[in-house]
Design goal:
two-stranded antiparallel sheet; four-stranded mixed β-sheet; 174 residues
Length: 174
């Protein structure tokens, strides 16, 4: 069963359909990895309580500001959910022109970075616990899940990139 996707925005409107992107990101993930995940909550910073916005959290043996958080994995009494701060996530890509969000692959990469990292926390906690730093485990799962997604959804991009690389190397002056 797929997790429920819920949007909780105060005044923010994302530049693209984020729930559609998240559904696309979940599709290639094996069901065993999403088992026990009840919800994916899409929020903006303005809709969060003061407790969730102000203060610090521990990450990699350091305190980090809650303002810098892009997403969170949370669990309580067997129910687990992922919270993605959509405005902050998109804001991290500010150097990128807005028109690039028209390209579906870019949208998947922007949201997928955070979503797959948080899903990595869920996998680490429920299916494959490892005795390493939690953030390192989540990052390795993000890499695995992202490459699986791109390989399945955008399989046709790799031959084009390989051909472009060969042409570039052939035309490059020595």
């Amino acid at each position: 069963m797929l997790p429920q996707i819920e949007e909780r925005y105060a005044a923010y409107r994302p530049p693209f359909d984020v729930p559609k992107v998240v559904r696309g990101l979940i599709a290639p993930v094996p069901e065993k990895y999403t088992r026990g995940l009840k919800q994916i909550i899409l929020v903006d910073s303005g809709s969060l309580s003061r407790r969730d916005r102000v203060g610090k959290v521990w990450s990699r043996k350091r305190k980090r500001s809650k303002q810098d958080i892009l997403g969170r994995y949370r669990h309580n009494n067997g129910a687990a959910w992922i919270e993605i701060r959509v405005d902050r996530t998109i804001e991290t890509w500010t150097g990128m022109p807005r028109w690039l969000f028209w390209i579906p692959m870019v949208r998947f990469i922007v949201i997928g970075e955070v979503f797959y990292h948080e899903l990595g926390h869920h996998i680490h906690r429920t299916i494959r616990p490892e005795f390493r730093e939690r953030e390192d485990v989540a990052e390795s799962w993000k890499t695995k899940l992202s490459s699986n997604f791109i390989r399945k959804r955008y399989w046709y991009v790799f031959p084009i990139l390989l051909a472009m690389k060969k042409i570039y190397l052939a035309l490059k002056p020595a």
